[in-house]
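Entry: Hpt domain-containing protein
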Amino acid sequence: MNIQEFYDSIDENYENVSSRMMGNQKLVEKFVRKFLEDPTYKQIKESVEKMDYDEILRATHTMKGIASNLEFTQLQQKSAKAVDMIRAGEKETVLPVIDEIEKEYQKVVDAIQKLD
């Protein structure tokens, strides 16, 4: 699967991320592959295990930015929802949203692993 097919497989818009990176397909692919090495998801998991809401907020906010930059809009939106909920004091109800982030993250990771 090439990078355009990757974006199609996760129902995201390759053209948006491509234009953000000046049409450089190799650059897009480089950053998508680097996503696998990013520690943010692990930080989310660890902060949830500790029930450290300050750290959950920081990590989900970071994930929101990374996902936005890579045009992973579904992951970005779920992360933004978690950030907004924690900021609004809805800490007790944020865990189902974290589950949604985990599912979306795994979908993206599985698709990245299928890149040529």
